[in-house]
Fold this protein.
Amino acid sequence: MPLTPEVLLDRVNDALGDKILTSKIAQEQVTIEVPAGDWLEICATLRDTPALAFDLMIDLCGVDYSAYKDGAWDGRRFAVVLNLLSIKRNHRLRVRTFCADDELPILPSLEEVWPAVNWFEREAFDLFGIVFDGHPDLRRILTDYGFIGHPFRKDFPISGHVEMRYDPELKRVVYQPVSIDPREVTPRIVREDNYGAAQ
Amino acid sequence: MTASASAEIRNYTINFGPQHPAAHGVLRLVLELDGEVIERADPHIGLLHRGTEKLAETRTFLQSVPYMDRLDYMSMMQNEHAYCMAIERLLGLSVPERAQYIRVMFDEITRILNHLLWLGTHALDIGAMTVFLYAFREREDLMDVYEAVTGARMHAAYYRPGGVYRDLPDAMPQYQASKKKNESDLRRLNENRQGSVLDFIEDFSKRFFGYVDEYETLLTDNRIWKQRTVGIGVVEADRAKALGFTGPMLRGSGIVWDLRKMQPYAVYDKLDFEIPIGRTGDSYDRYLVRMEEMRQSNRLIQQCVAWLKADSAKGAGPVISENHKVAPPSREAMKSNMEELIHHFKLFTEGMHVPEGEVYAAVEHSKGEFGVYLISDGANKPYRLKLRAPGFSHLAGLDEMSRGHMIADVVAIIGTLDIVFGDIDR
């Protein structure tokens, strides 16, 4: 069975010391937040410390916090979240870092630490526009060739900006502005704390 | 002209897919060749990108369940399982034991469905036609089970946060008479469909060990099969970890790692099964691993059926949570009780509110680790949903696995990766 989260957090604290900005245990999962400046170094430490040995990079994803709690968020906009797994020690860790610049979010690439991160970073670049410095091949991966914009940002509409159709006169596929309006059937609702509780 | 001894040698670049039958869907591969030897393989993905994660942000938690089927559309219910587990963990919701057993049973049925498709298409790509026909014969039976329980043969939408949609039906649907089916055909076809769905599954699981042996007689010692798979796409254990491989791709390289054993979820810790591993990490070992996994899945199904059939108190009970903020009340209660009616209305209009927080839930999917990373800000819709698809990492490793091999081997390697574009492109 995996380590208890408390023990794991102690070990992470031992390895990283004061580099951890915040740490949290919830649902028996450990999340730490680290500064973007030491990103590469911290990840290498997590991989190489024998008591931690995070040898498998499970997931890396971007998060756009700008609409969190309907705009109540006042931190940095873009975060990158790593989900790590240690096969040797059988435990998991989540590491989050916020990119310093909201206009041009940039982070060093982890390609040297975990080669598996390659496509995940391409995906985060494609969908959120987070740039990974030192990435060997930072092309778009999921969107169309020649796509403009970063579709998973919260200010990108769900219906997109352009649609594609075959033009019989030009005898080729053309792009044109979308002809549909986004429609919200069920509105998004954040209830106040203790909503509906018996008085 | 200077007579330079070496004529100009150029590498060929060829385009493989997306309409190539061995591309397993919509893979576009740009291959750089030196003669017939692969120098570089560059997969272009995203042709099936539907933005499921973004769509889920605009739907209530319940409305996104059917999207999960359409991710890896060969292991539908396992995707739903990971998604429901993520929501349950954030809500702190416990799932009734009967629902857990039903889930495990269907996870394993799904694993067999997936591996049968993988086996059939992998063998077909390499040139063995018959296996495909046999594999689809068994898939038919299992898809009938899907249909009997959920009404859909593939996109089941059966799991719900808090349990499963409904209990297993008491009768297995039977074939009806038609112009093409006479009396004796009908009797033969309906022979094992006389009892309940569980009886049918039990009958299937008894037959299935023999079927796996049948497939193995066709392939395991087959000289052509071995020539095409032994030593092809070798991945060392350390390299497999570095590339982020999970599931059979990792086990084929000799690493004992299976979430069902190592970080058990549902009721896997109460069941008896083994983890097969490979030795050399080539395509042939991965084939052997997956064949053995089908047998182990079948054992798990048998144990679940035995538990579910027990008529003592332990086999009975509800299949979905009693918490009506999350799971709907029964139709009957809803029609006769004000409180229940309000719950029903609120659940299906506004939807459930999941407490603020973040969680990662992973299942041992047929192809590897399928994970759902869910961030909720307390709304009735997810704030961010990230789906970790096993095939994504595996396909990223294709370049490294195929370097130095011949063109024909790329097809064998794509087969051994067991890729499905629904989950790679999401």
